[in-house]
Write a structure and sequence with these properties.
mainly beta, Immunoglobulin-like, Fibronectin type-III domain-containing protein, signal, Ig-like_fold
Length: 270
Amino acid sequence: MRSRMFKLMLALMVAVMLVPVISAQAATNLTANNITNSSVTLNWTLQSGETTVQINKNGVYQATIAGSTYVATGLSTCTSYTFDVIGSGTFGSLSKTVTTAGCPTAPVITYSATWSQINLSWTASNAVSYEILRNDNHVNTVTGTSTTITTNPSLAEKITIIAKNSTGQTASSTVWVSTPQYTGSVSGTAYGQVKLNAFLRNSDSLYSQSIYIELYRNGTWVSETIVTLNAGQSLTGTYTLATGQPYDNYTAQIHSPKVAAYSLSLTGQY
């Protein structure tokens, strides 16, 4: 009997030795509160039998606390820190990563577009300046929340706005803006040979493009004239739209996918 009891007790001792030691947590309910640009308050609940804990920030000792609150100060704006609440002896530890306040938010962008410009406005917080990129190329940097970008007809423009705070952290948003084709018109009194004076510019650097000019007399269609420009070409010219016309009011309606017209005027004489 004694031999059996001895063997049973020995077996129990071996079993206990084989069970891994499980350390209790130093604390529970670790939270981060009152987060500002430069400070954060940590709160936790001590476990039974635990009286003090050690606080580490990014692996570096900060303090030993006999309680359940620690206020970390002197932090940098918009920066992430990992705090460890470490128990003594067999008590374990808890960790929490906290990002301080003051990070810029990604701009919320609104826009409108014509054939020649894109009008942008946006909202953001914790930002002191905004860099504007067009197709990933720097355009300018502004401190306000609106700007206008000069563009060309019939393009898909990638617009990025990067918000930057006082310590250099950034957040960005991107929109794609489609510009319409060129449209324009000019009106005047003329007769005989009705002509259009204009400066024309083809914004397409790869292909020839045409501009279409329709002439109306008091709203009645008279003729259409097509002018074709080589890739990237600009020219100033006078274009005859109609001949033998009576003295009256005329309007030239002009449109093109890529060619824009400037300095428009109508003339006419016998």
